[in-house]
Amino acid sequence: MSTDVDAPVDTTGARGGGSEPEHLDVVIVGAGLSGIGTACHLEREQPGRDYAILEAREDLGGTWSLFQYPGIRSDSDMHTLGFKFRPWPDTVALADGASILEYVRDTAEEYGVDRRIRYGTRVTHAAWSSEDQRWTLALTTAAGEKLLTCSFLLWCSGYYRYDAGYTPELPGIENYGGTVIHPQHWDPELDYAGKRVVVIGSGATAVTLVPAMTQGEGRAAHVTQLQRTPSYVLSIGRTDPVAEFLNRWVPSWVADPIVRTKNITQLIALYQISQRFPRFVKGLLRKGAAAQLPEGYAVDTHFNPPYDPWDQRMCMVPDGDLFKAIRRGDADIVTDRIETFTGTGIRLQSGRELEADIVITATGLNLQLFGGADLEVDGEPVNLPDTMAYRGMMLSGIPNLVFMIGYTNASWTLKVDLVAEYFCRLLGWMDTHGKAVAVPQRDPAVQERPLLDFDAGYVKRSLHELPTGGDRAPWTLAMNYAIDAVTLRRARVDEGMRFEPARARVRA
User: Fold this and answer.
1) What is stated as this protein's family in its record (predicted)?
2) Where residue 233 sits, what CATH number does that domain have?
3) What is the pLDDT along the chain (508 residues), one digit of tens a residue?
4) What is the largest distance, in Å, between two alpha-carbon atoms of the chain?
5) Residue 15 lies in a domain
C-alpha cells in the first residue's frame, strides 16, 4: 500500500538515522475488542500490511481490563459480542469480565496481533497532509514525545473517556463522612464486607453491582440501588440452552454459526417489536419483573420507566440475580431524588434518609471520540460537529480515517466486524485502482440528523460535540445489523467518495 520510496524502517521508531518518523501503512489506535478485532481482520484479509496498534494503557482489553468493580460482566450475549471469525467458546451468555479479557488475549495471541501492540503510547494529535498523503501522529510515551506517520488511521478506542467517568453534581457531598467511589475507578482493596452500600444509578453497571455485592463471604450488609428514573430490566439465562444442546451433538463449526444467527435474530426482533409495539413489550417486561419480585412490590415505581423500551439500552440480568437479591431482602431499590448528602448518608427529597458507609456513583460515562486527540487536515483544525459521518465509520472531508462505533441496541462487536471487513475491502479496491487517498464527500442535499438517535443521558450530554448524521444513505448510522450486513458487505466503496491516485515520495 505504501508509496514511500525511502529505505526500510528500522526498529527504533525512526528511519534514515532519525531524519524522518517511522511510517506504517496502517495505525490502529486502541487495543480493546475493536482494535484487536480489526487487526485480526487485517491479518486475515490484507496480509502483509505494515501496521501497529497503539495502546495508551499498559494492557490490552479496553473496557475489560479497565473496569474492576464486583460482578463486571457483559451486558450483551457473548455469542454476538464475540468475533465472527473466532466464536465465543463457551455456552455462557453473559460472561464475567475476566473471561472476556482472557478471550481477547487469546484471540490476539492466536492471530499474532499481540506482537503489534505498542503499550503506553497515547496519540495526542493527528495531522493529515494532502501533499504527503499521510497522517502524522504526535505520541506521548514513557520515553518522551515521538512522531509516527501512516497512510491510514483507524480509531478503535471506543467513544467514552477512559480517565474519567461521569459524576453529576451531588449536593452536600462535602459533608459526607463515608467512602465515595465511581465504578470506573474501582479500588480493588475496597472492603465492603458488612457495610451499608448505596449504589446511585439505574443502568447496566448498577444492576450488576447490586446483586454482586450481596453474594460471597465478603458481602455487604445491605445494598440499596438509588435511582432517579427506572430502567427496563430483562432476566435472561446465564447460559444459552441452544448452545448447550448443540455443543453436545454437533461440532463447534456447525453449532457456532447457528447460535450466533439465532441470537442476532432475537436481538433484531426484540428491538423491532419494541419500536413498533412499545405498549405490548412494556407490558411483557412489567409482568416479567412482577413475577420475580415479592408480592405487592411497587413494580410501577421501580421497574416501569416513563420512556418506551429501547429508547434507552435495556438492562439484562443473568438468571434474574437482581430480583433474587431483592427477594432475599439483601437489596432494595429506591426511586427518588437526592436533596443532600449528610454526614452519614443521603437525605432524599421525599424526606427519607439512606444510611450508607459506602456510596457508589454508577452514574455513567463521559463520551469522547478519538481519545481526546486533536485532528487537523492541511493545517486546519477539525471541528467534529462540522463533519458528517459516512456509513457511521468515516467523516466527510477527512481523508483515510476510519473510526468504530458499535450498536446501542445490540452487541458492540457486531458492528466492529462489519466495519473492519469494509475497511479491508476498501484497501483492496484502492490497491486495484491505484488509489492512495479516500475522502467522503458530503452531499449538500443531505439534511443533518443526530449521529446517535438514542435517549440515554450520556448521549444527550455530548451530542453537540459529535459529528452529525444524515437523513439518507450513506450518511446514516444504522442501528440494524441486518441492514448493515448487506450494505457494508455489498455497497460500492466509491459511493459518495473521492479518491486520489498514489504519488511517490522522494526524500529531500
Assistant:
1) Belongs to the FAD-binding monooxygenase family.
2) 3.50.50
3) 444 433 333 333 433 345 689 999 999 999 999 999 999 999 999 999 999 999 999 999 998 998 999 999 998 889 999 999 999 999 998 999 999 999 999 999 999 999 999 999 999 999 999 999 999 999 999 899 999 999 999 999 877 777 777 788 899 999 999 999 999 899 989 999 999 999 999 989 999 999 999 998 899 999 999 999 999 999 988 888 888 898 889 888 888 999 999 999 988 899 899 989 999 999 999 999 999 999 999 999 999 999 899 888 889 999 999 999 999 999 999 999 999 999 999 999 999 999 999 999 998 877 778 888 999 999 999 999 899 999 989 999 999 999 998 887 788 899 999 999 999 999 999 999 999 999 999 988 988 887 776 656 656 666 677 888 888 889 987 778 888 888 888 888 999 999 999 886 544 3
4) 80
5) no
- Assess whether 91 and 178 both reside in one domain: no
Cβ neighbour number for residue 458 with a 10 Å cutoff: 18
| 447 and 405 share one domain | yes
Is there a contact between 434 and 501 (Cβ–Cβ < 8 Å)? yes
Pair 351, 400 in one domain: no
Helix (H) or strand (E) holding 449: strand 448-450
Q: Among 330, 361, 392, where does a domain finish?
A: 361
Whether residues 318 and 245 fall in one domain: yes
Residue 475 CA: distances (Å) to CA of 154, 281, 370, 391, 463: 19, 30, 20, 5, 16
Grid coordinates belonging to 315: 438492562
Same domain, 154 and 189: no
Ramachandran class of 238: left when φ > 0, alpha when ψ lies in -120 to 50, beta otherwise:
alpha
Query: Is 1 a domain residue?
Result: no
* Non-local CB neighbours of 242 within 8 Å, separated by 6+ positions: 258, 259, 262
Number of domains in the chain: 2
- 459-172-163 Cα angle (round to 5): 40
Instruction: State which residues form the domain around 382.
Output: 21-163+366-501
Residues with Cβ within 8 Å of residue 52, at least 6 apart in sequence:
24, 27, 28, 116, 117, 118, 148
CA-nearest of 483, 402, 458, 372 to 37 is 402
For residues 353 and 211, state if they share a domain. Answer: yes
